[in-house]
Amino acid sequence: MNILLDFIPFQEAGGVGGAAGFTQAITNAILNYQQARHTFYAVCDSQMGVGRLVDYQAFAREHNIILQDVAKTSLATIVQQNNIDLFLIFIGQFYKNYALQNISCRTIVFIHDIFDIERNDNLIDLSIYDKNKDSLWQQAKRYINIFSKRWEKQTQQGYKNIIALCQQTTTTLYTVSNYTKNALEYYFPEIKNEIKVCYSPLREAPQTEAIENEALRQLILSGKPFLLLLAANRRYKNARNLLKVFPRLKRRFSDLHLLTLKYGSIIDAQHIDIPFLSDADLQNAYRHAHALVFPSFFEGFGYPPVEAMRYGTPTIAANVTSIPEVLANAAIYFSPFYPADIYKAAVQILENKDVLKEQLRCRYTEIIDRQNSDLARFLADVFNQ
């Protein structure tokens, strides 16, 4: 069988974060399953970078994968010229600007979330102004894009291609949580195909006590408690409200520090912002954090709390979208819209880090079991078993 893989997530937005991690984990599972019996190709885009988490060119060489450049050849032509039997699209949203017509082979598509559809419906952009980073002109432009419905029209246009592909009888549609499945059914009732759920598999995590990043090393060596927030540059991760709460937390817990990734600025001496951590350093950040803070407005699945569970590190988390589904009783929840609620949850975990110890252990086992069983079903779909 000739299989066309999706390497665009290794490149999109610098190739970091959950999309790249998901693609790495699921690609490795496919290659390890029956690599010798099949020929593998992969879609890439030469107009984008190679990616920081995975260098897709080196990965292709290592696994004898034949790269196909969508910037030079259409997807339909790639499928036809290479006699592709199966096309796997790991992040459907990344294909909104590519031509998806006339793809003649069997196709499996993952859509992880549709937050850009939901954000236009619930007008959440009206409430995400960050005084530390946004000018009044930037906020005014956001209002103009919302009330003129420019963003809404762009989003609806962008989804036309991928939703049309999902409606074809040769397409199998997957998502990564029951929440996103329900959202797809609500916003796109024209999809008649079954929507299958496969919890995102965790990728292998490198383990080492050596810490490359000097700021992280000094923070850990200090022994000071710290809260961890990832992807703080992305507005929908809601760094703004946590940063609003942090000064109040310091009044009660004077040694407390805050470690953010990629926020782009710092608010005081006990706030440390790091632009990038290697995989190994990220594992050390999880391991040594007093707690992970996960205040996102939207999540299709949400890797970080599960990755933190691996080390018994608790999470305080927003009580929205897929987050309560995935974490169940193994988190302390708050409304992401109310700073006082974030404060209350943080105080609870700072006063007793072990308050969720047993729930974390049990839920981590449950999630791993679910991920393994879902992945087995997905691989059976891939290989027609």
Structure description:
- Strand 2, helix 3 (56-62) and strand 3 form a beta-alpha-beta unit.
- The model has no long low-confidence stretch (mean pLDDT 94).
- The chain starts with a strand and ends with a helix.
- It has helices spanning 8-11, 18-34, 56-62, 75-81, 115-122, 136-147, 150-166, 178-187, 214-222, 239-252, 279-288, 303-309, 323-327, 339-351, 357-382; strands at 2-6, 39-44, 66-69, 86-89, 106-110, 171-175, 195-197, 226-229, 257-261, 271-274, 291-294, 315-318, 332-334.
- It has 385 residues and is α/β, with parallel strands linked by helices.
- Helix 10 (239-252) packs across helix 14 (339-351).
- The strands form 2 sheets. The chain has a 7-stranded parallel β-sheet with strand order 3-2-1-4-5-6-7, sandwiched between helices.
- Helices cover 43% and strands 15% of the residues.
Present the secondary structure layout.
Elements: E1 2-6, H1 8-11, H2 18-34, E2 39-44, H3 56-62, E3 66-69, H4 75-81, E4 86-89, E5 106-110, H5 115-122, H6 136-147, H7 150-166, E6 171-175, H8 178-187, E7 195-197, H9 214-222, E8 226-229, H10 239-252, E9 257-261, E10 271-274, H11 279-288, E11 291-294, H12 303-309, E12 315-318, H13 323-327, E13 332-334, H14 339-351, H15 357-382
Parallel strand pairs: 1-2, 1-4, 2-3, 4-5, 5-6, 6-7, 8-9, 8-11, 9-10, 11-12, 12-13
Helix pairs in contact: 5-7, 10-14
